[in-house]
């Protein structure tokens, strides 16, 4: 059940749209997940939606490529190593983590962006389903 | 409380959930001949020029909402760093938030490097941010300041293009202001001459453009001092009222007078001590 598939931008459609929020019978669960619309799954409602969702990864990769050119192959490898370590540190997947280690490695502690005061995940009113998320994280499903 | 599915956890930054709703609302309203409300723009004249010792920035002070004046005295010259100021035209909220964010970023950057901020750094941060949002953030900015490499002046457009020039104007009144600059600008002017020229350029924008008006603000930045003159000149002063419609006391004759005391009983009395330590 890959919910990340269709919404990563129109170009990445594989000709298949999965039912969002399926529970037991493979049908959309309106009570828990709200009304559904296949069009809203495929089409971006705003031109920036796709580019914003995918922004951080290419930015990081471009920075690492620049590092490789200026400082040698070891620099991006060390940084990626540190990132892997800091990603592992944290609480259970359903609980909020401050992400200080990751932020320090990425240099995000010296920057302020829209993600710091708009829709801060620390103040979000929603949480993921703990059982599903932990099963996924520990690969128990 | 509804729980979100396993992977669609909320992430920070812009959330586009309401865009679909707005689109549907717009279509519904269009059926009845109405329109969605528009963001408040500043409909502005902003200008800047480099003189002998530094930079002079000027702006008018009117904010419009289509054809209504939303703010008669708004502040369009924003603080970026102690030696860098920025005039903003376009959508008012966008210019405010953009300049505040860049100001915070520049402060963090200068704390981390241990050096005073440079105008080129601010310009780079602004253009990268505006390009990332592909012009949807409607902020046209005139960025000026004096740093270790001397005075600099940049004009930054909403899609992320920048120009480094000796004199710039932006906003709806930019053509009127640019006409004045093109006529009288000279290299290495004195401070008073530069202030007068910027004042004339903004006044030209105020009197010839409907979107600009009210007062003229000026900011003079040199290596040693910052002069933030707000307002520098009240170009559009509201007239003084000549007549008075108030009636003098005793104009109405009192025909009769009746005084009626209102009696009340005290039902309950409580004493509450205050902690004044």
UniProtKB/TrEMBL annotation, chain A:
Q: Name one GO biological process term.
A: proteasome assembly
GO cellular component term, pick one: nucleus
Pfam family of the protein (one): UMP1
Q: Which InterPro entries match?
A: Ump1 (IPR008012)
Which keywords describe this protein according to UniProt?
Chaperone
Concerning its family, UniProt says: Belongs to the POMP/UMP1 family.
What is the protein name for this chain? Proteasome maturation protein
- Biological source species: Eptatretus burgeri
High-level lineage: Eukaryota, Metazoa, Chordata, Craniata, Vertebrata
UniProtKB/TrEMBL annotation, chain B:
State the compartments where it is located: Cytoplasm; Nucleus
The species this protein belongs to is: Eptatretus burgeri
What GO MF annotations does this protein's record show? threonine-type endopeptidase activity
| Domain (Proteasome beta subunit C-terminal) ranges | 235-271
Reactions catalysed, as given in the entry = Cleavage of peptide bonds with very broad specificity
Highest taxon of source: Eukaryota
What quaternary structure, including any partners, is listed in this protein's UniProt entry? Component of the proteasome complex.
What the entry lists under InterPro entries is as follows:
Ntn_hydrolases_N, Pept_T1A_subB, Proteasome_bsu_C, Proteasome_bsu_CS, Proteasome_sua/b, Proteasome_suB-type
Q: Which SUPFAM superfamilies match?
A: N-terminal nucleophile aminohydrolases (Ntn hydrolases)
Q: Does the keyword Nucleus apply?
A: yes
**Which PROSITE patterns is this protein grouped with?**
PROTEASOME_BETA_1, PROTEASOME_BETA_2
This protein's record includes keyword Nucleus: yes
Its predominant location is cytoplasm
Q: Which family does it belong to?
A: Belongs to the peptidase T1B family.
Quote a single Gene Ontology cellular component term.
Answer: proteasome core complex
Keywords (A to Z) from UniProt: Cytoplasm, Hydrolase, Nucleus, Protease, Proteasome, Threonine protease
Active site as annotated: 44 (nucleophile)
Q: Name one GO biological process term.
A: proteolysis involved in protein catabolic process
**Can you name this protein?**
Proteasome subunit beta
């Amino acid at each position: 059940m890959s919910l990340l598939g269709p919404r990563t931008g129109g170009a990445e459609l594989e000709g298949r749209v999965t039912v969002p929020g399926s529970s037991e019978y493979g049908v959309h669960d309106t009570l828990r997940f709200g009304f559904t619309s296949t069009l809203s799954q495929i089409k971006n409602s705003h031109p920036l939606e796709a580019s914003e969702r995918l922004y951080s990864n290419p930015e990081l990769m471009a920075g690492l490529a620049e590092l490789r050119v200026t400082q040698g192959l070891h620099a991006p490898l060390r940084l990626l190593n540190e990132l892997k370590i800091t990603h592992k540190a944290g609480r259970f997947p359903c609980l909020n983590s401050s992400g200080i280690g990751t932020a320090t490695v990425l240099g995000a502690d010296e920057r302020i962006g829209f993600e710091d005061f708009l829709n801060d995940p620390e103040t979000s009113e929603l949480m993921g389903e703990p059982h599903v998320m932990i099963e996924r994280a520990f690969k128990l499903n | 409380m509804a729980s979100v599915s396993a992977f669609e956890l909320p992430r920070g930054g812009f959330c586009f959930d309401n865009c679909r709703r707005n689109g549907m609302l717009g279509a519904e309203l269009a059926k009845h001949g109405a329109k969605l409300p528009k963001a408040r723009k500043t409909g502005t004249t902003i200008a800047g020029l480099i003189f002998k010792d530094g930079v002079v920035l000027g702006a008018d002070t009117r904010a419009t909402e289509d054809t209504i004046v939303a703010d008669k005295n708004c502040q369009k010259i924003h603080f970026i760093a102690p030696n860098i100021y920025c005039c903003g035209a376009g959508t008012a909220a966008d210019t405010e938030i953009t300049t505040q964010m860049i100001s915070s970023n520049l402060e963090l950057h200068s704390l981390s490097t241990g050096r005073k901020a440079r105008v080129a750094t601010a310009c780079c941060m602004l253009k990268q941010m505006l390009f990332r949002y592909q012009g949807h953030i409607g902020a046209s900015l005139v960025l000026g300041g004096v740093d270790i490499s001397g005075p600099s002046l940049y004009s930054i457009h909403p899609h992320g293009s920048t120009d480094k020039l000796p004199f710039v104007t932006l906003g709806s009144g930019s053509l009127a202001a640019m006409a004045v600059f093109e006529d009288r600008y000279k290299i290495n002017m004195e401070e008073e001459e530069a202030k007068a020229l910027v004042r004339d350029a903004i006044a030209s924008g105020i009197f010839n453009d409907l979107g600009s008006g009210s007062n003229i603000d000026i900011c003079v930045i040199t290596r040693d001092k910052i002069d933030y003159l707000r307002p520098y000149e009240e170009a559009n002063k509201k007239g003084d009222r000549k007549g008075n419609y108030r009636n003098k006391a005793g104009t109405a004759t009192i025909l009769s007078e009746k005084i009626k005391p209102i009696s009340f009983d005290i039902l309950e009395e409580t004493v509450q001590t205050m902690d004044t330590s």
